[in-house]
Write a structure and sequence with these properties.
258 residues; SAM-dependent_MTases_sf; 5 helices
């Protein structure tokens, strides 16, 4: 597997290519090189989306499911899920018009003819039923838990979509501020009748290259030269003892015991 990034153009746009030798396929992501463009961070390709894409590729089975991605940004995680799984449908969403334009381009690049993947605008503060045509079985999202101001809308959106007993969300989150993350998990989710469990910790591999998924059962899986994480730089690290914690992955469901 090889991950190529093209050189920035004059308007600071580049393309990141993720090549899977075994699948004999490639995912191309058009992105902005600046962290913030047009007042949003959603136009660049963040590391958490690569981590989530890798997790979905390695550990998930979404066969015949309807998938919804929240805060898709460049769309890497949602595009990867659609490439690697035989989904019934896939809907990638964001709330920013600039992001949506680029997201549509990325979907068109990777799925030039397929009609089972769509792009929709989704405002977390507006009733979802007027925005999304299907009720998803699976929700995914990367790096959504970063600002307390979006917590209420995000949690309400999760609650609205997780209506069926078998539906659930998988969220991957870079570890930046533990207090912010804990507030979301232990306070905001509870207010909406949601519960969570951590399903994996993502560590920098002891070699300093690649990552390691540590599952909650204690099993670990090394990803040294994988499809999505092989060439990402791993900054914003949280060191715990001799471990370098990069991200955590959570499963969220309705709390049926309430």
């Amino acid at each position: 597997m090889v991950d190529f990034s093209s050189s920035p153009s004059i308007d600071e746009i580049s393309h990141r290519c993720f090549i899977d030798v075994e699948l004999k396929d490639v995912i191309v992501i058009r992105k902005k090189d600046a962290i913030v463009t047009n007042g949003t961070t959603g136009l660049t390709c963040w590391r958490a989306s690569a981590i989530l894409a890798e997790y979905i590729r390695l550990f998930c089975d979404f066969t015949d499911k309807n998938l919804l991605e929240l805060g898709s940004g460049c769309g890497l995680s949602g595009i990867a899920a659609t490439k690697y799984h035989n989904l019934q449908s896939s809907c990638l969403t964001d709330g920013n018009d600039y992001v949506l334009d680029q997201l549509k381009e990325n979907v068109d690049i990777n799925f030039p003819q397929e009609n089972y993947i769509s792009v929709r605008k989704l405002d977390w503060n507006i009733n979802y039923k007027n925005q999304i045509p299907i009720l998803p079985d699976i929700i995914i999202g990367a790096d959504l838990i970063y600002d307390v101001e979006v917590f209420t809308g995000l949690c309400q959106t999760l609650k609205n979509f997780l209506e069926t007993p078998n539906s659930y969300a998988i969220l991957a989150q870079n570890i930046r501020n533990r207090d912010t993350l804990d507030s979301f998990l232990n306070k905001e989710l509870t207010k909406q009748g949601l519960k969570y469990k951590r399903i994996a910790r993502v560590l920098l591999h002891k070699s300093g290259h690649g990552i390691c998924f540590e599952k909650e059962n204690g099993n670990t899986v090394d990803c040294l030269n994988e499809v999505f994480c092989s060439n990402y730089s791993f900054d914003y690290k949280s060191k715990i003892g001799n471990e370098v914690l990069l991200a955590e992955i959570f499963e969220i469901r309705m709390n049926i015991n309430i």
